[in-house]
Give the backbone structure.
Amino acid sequence: MSFQCPCCNSRKVASLRTAMTVGAIVGSIGGAARSANPAFAGSQMGATFDAIAGPSGIIIGTVFSAILGRLVAGVRGCALGAQLGENLDRHVLANNLCLVCGHRFNLPT
Ligand SMILES: [Zn+2]
């Protein structure tokens, strides 16, 4: 990805990823919290695991699905939040910094 400074046309542009970092963290927490819902996909994975392990694996499967579901949801939320944050950084918060003249600017949408 190469961006150009609208001021001096330099291609040395740094991206300050404030919103992206915040978005990733908020997304992770939100995703993990949402997975507390038993109807979430994690329980489906657990059911699959139960089917493989048999009746004796039900308890293990339930615990496993709860942990795995939370992890997956956290990663999903993190990716989504990071994506949202990156768009905010690039187009809304003027977090593109020219390393030559120090100009901060938004990318055209
Ligand atoms: Zn510049």
User: Anything to note?
Assistant: The two ends are 15 Å apart (CA to CA). Residues 5, 7-8, 10, 98, 100-101, 103 surround zinc ion (CB under 6 Å). The first helix runs from residue 18 to 34.
